[in-house]
Structures are given as structure tokens and as C-alpha cells.
Specification:
Layout: H1 5-21, H2 23-33, H3 38-53, H4 61-75, H5 80-95, H6 103-121, H7 131-146, H8 151-167, H9 192-208
Helix pairs in contact: 1-2, 1-3, 1-4, 1-9, 2-3, 2-9, 3-4, 4-5, 5-6, 6-7, 6-8, 7-8, 7-9, 8-9
Bound molecules: adenosine-5'-diphosphate (ADP) and magnesium ion (MG) (2 copies).
GO molecular function: kinase activity
Keywords: Kinase, Transferase
Protein name: Dihydroxyacetone kinase subunit DhaL
Length: about 210
């Protein structure tokens, strides 16, 4: 489908569904190196966004993302709420009032989202955070777009790179967030936020491909 407000809404609804399906898995990842609430935080946050989307009224992708941002910031406790909230807010700002997102604008909003997470959380690549999913995703999206990929193909490239990035957090030692308290004991476990980021980007590609 074209990347309109309808797609943006479909994406967020798919996020809610997928994060509900992966709730337990995300909780188990967070149990190993955090406080076992990441699956709960994400499910609750996106369910709250879906409830607001049900009321209607969002006429552009940017408006959908802004509503998503505000709701995640106010309903998700812990680190992930403000980080994802900032990501969606920056994505909304990057898109402005555009009715449809072209391949270059996909790269633009993904880059803005990643930059927002960095501005908020100050993590660098290799710190074992969601940035280790977002940064390869942004790079792969840019490479695909430069090669002439469609918007769906750009999102697919981003999603695949995000999942590879999430897997690649397993041997890393956490240097940001709650997992950093474990020091070397954080190695050997996948970062939960990197995994939820990969799920969210996969949902973007899947809904765009329908
Ligand atoms: P909390 O740690 O407060 O319980 P969550 O469990 O919901 O919050 O989210 C944890 C995730 O947040 C981590 O797996 C990591 O990906 C991400 N995270 C934590 N701190 C940062 C940071 N400074 N920058 C980027 N991501 C971070
Ligand atoms: Mg947690
Ligand atoms: Mg917590």
C-alpha cells in the first residue's frame, strides 16, 4: 500500500499486535539483563495508542506519529517510553504535513527517529541498546534508497538490518540503561529494546507490503 496516513495507522496497529505476540519473549530478554518489564511496557504503550487511533482524526502520517509519540511518552514507564516517544516525535516533525511518504522521506523519517533516540539517550553504536538496531536500519535504508528501491523495499532493508543488529547485541557489554549495571554479565544476552525495535520496523515493512 502507499505510505499514507492509512498505512501509518496500519503500522501502529500491527505494532500493537506483534508486541502483544512477543510480550513474553521481550519480558524474558529483559529479565536476563534488566527488570523484566519491557514486553509489558511496549504492549501497554501501543495498546494505548490503538485506543486513541480508534477515535480517528489523524489525516497525515505525521499526525499518526505525533499521536503515537505523545501517547507512548505518557503511558510507557521506564526508559523505552521517552526513547520511542522521541523517535516518533522526530519522525513526525521530519514528515511535516506530507500526505504520502516517498522512498527518500522513508530514509528521512527513520534517520530523524534514530537521531531522536540518540539525542535523548546518548547511546553510541555498540553500547547494547536499541541504537544497535536503529543505526544499521538507517544505513541499510539509505543504501537501498540510493540504489533506487521502492518505499516498501527501503522499509524491508531497514527491518532486515535491524533484526541483524538486534542479534549482534548478544555478545556486547551494556554501557547504557539498566543493563549497564551488570557490566560484563550483560554479555551473552540480546538487548530487549533492540529486539522490539526490529519488530517495530518489521511491522512497518509488512504493512507497507500489503
Ligand atoms: P527500563 O530499563 O526502564 O525497565 P525498558 O525495559 O522498557 O525500560 O527498556 C529497556 C530498553 O531501553 C533497553 O533494552 C535499551 O534498548 C533501551 N535503552 C535504555 N537506555 C537507553 C539509552 N540511553 N539509549 C538508547 N536506548 C536505551
Ligand atoms: Mg525493563
Ligand atoms: Mg522498568
Amino acid at each position: 500500500m502507499a505510505l499514507t496516513a492509512q498505512w501509518a495507522e496500519a503500522w501502529i496497529r500491527e505494532c500493537s499486535q506483534v508486541l502483544t505476540e512477543h510480550r513474553t519473549a521481550l519480558i524474558e530478554l529483559d529479565r536476563a539483563i534488566g527488570d523484566a518489564d519491557h514486553g509489558e511496557n511496549m504492549q501497554r504503550g501501543f495498546a494505548a495508542v490503538v485506543a486513541k487511533l480508534d477515535a480517528g482524526g489523524q489525516e497525515t502520517p505525521g499526525a499518526v506519529f505525533k499521536l503515537t509519540a505523545m501517547t507512548l511518552m505518557s503511558t510507557v514507564g521506564g526508559a523505552a517510553g521517552p526513547l520511542y516517544g522521541t523517535a516518533f516525535l522526530r519522525a513526525a516533525t521530519a514528515l511535516g504535513d506530507a500526505a504520502e511518504i516517498d522512498p527518500a522521506a522513508v530514509v528521512g523519517f527513520l534517520t530523524a527517529a534514530r537521531d531522536g533516540v540518540v539525542a535523548r539517550g546518548k547511546a553510541e553504536p555498540g553500547d547494547k541498546t536499541m541504537i544497535d538496531a536503529w543505526t544499521p536500519a538507517v544505513e541499510a535504508a539509505g543504501t537501498a534508497q540510493s540504489a533506487g528501491a521502492s518505499a516498501v523495499e527501503v522499509l524491508e532493508a531497514a527491518a532486515n538490518a535491524a533484526q541483524a543488529g538486534a542479534l549482534a547485541t548478544e555478545p556486547l557489554i551494556a554501557r547504557k540503561g539498566r543493563a549497564s549495571y551488570l557490566g560484563e554479565r550483560s554479555a551473552g544476552h540480546r538487548d530487549p529494546g533492540a529486539q522490539s525495535s526490529a519488530l517495530i520496523l518489521q511491522a512497518a515493512a509488512d504493512t507497507a507490503g500489503r
